[in-house]
Amino acid sequence: MLFLSSFLILSHFLFAVEPLAIREGESAPGFSLLSVAGKEVSFSDYQNKPVVLFFWATWCPYCTAELPDLQKRYKDFMSSGIEVLAIDIGESQERVEKFLNKKNIELSVLLDRKNEVAHKYNVVGIPTYVLIDRQGKIRFHGNTLPHNYTQLLNQK
Question: What are the tens digits of pLDDT across the range 113-147?
Fold first, then answer.
């Protein structure tokens, strides 16, 4: 059953919608989502701050392999003034919360239950990282965190 739901979500991304073109250097699209804690979070809350968006799902083995590394780097991100938002795609709050508790993940996690933000950010496979600089410009869009992420986020 999990495989079937995973396939349906992926096929929704790959076949049912035509992704928007997101290009490096363009302004990042705004959004508002609920956090796992039930708080509404808007992208505009992070204005003038570099942001790492991490699109993922609990059923994705590559995503779950990335999460512990992201959690380890979280303090470094925060001490550098970089915000990290992990955006779960298409899953229930209960499922995500249970997963996070089991894995001791304390990142800021938002719920994109209808895949709308993932669509805005042209997410066609997960995990996907989107790096956004202080000016709100996209500096990277890809499936791995680049080693030079701090340089990209501080680009002018």
Answer: 999 999 999 999 999 999 999 999 999 999 999 98
Beta pairing class for 51-56 and 138-142: unpaired
Residue 43's pLDDT is 96
Structure tokens at 36: 């796992």
Cα–Cα nearest to 36, from 109, 92, 112, 113: 109
SS (H, E, C) 61-106: HHHHHHHHHHHHHHHHHHHCCCEEEEEEECCCHHHHHHHHHHHCCC
Residue numbers of the domain that contains 88: 2-153
CATH number at 100 reads: 3.40.30.10
The structural domain count of the chain equals 1
User: Kindly report the CA angle at 67 between 17 and 19, in degrees rounded to 5?
Assistant: 15
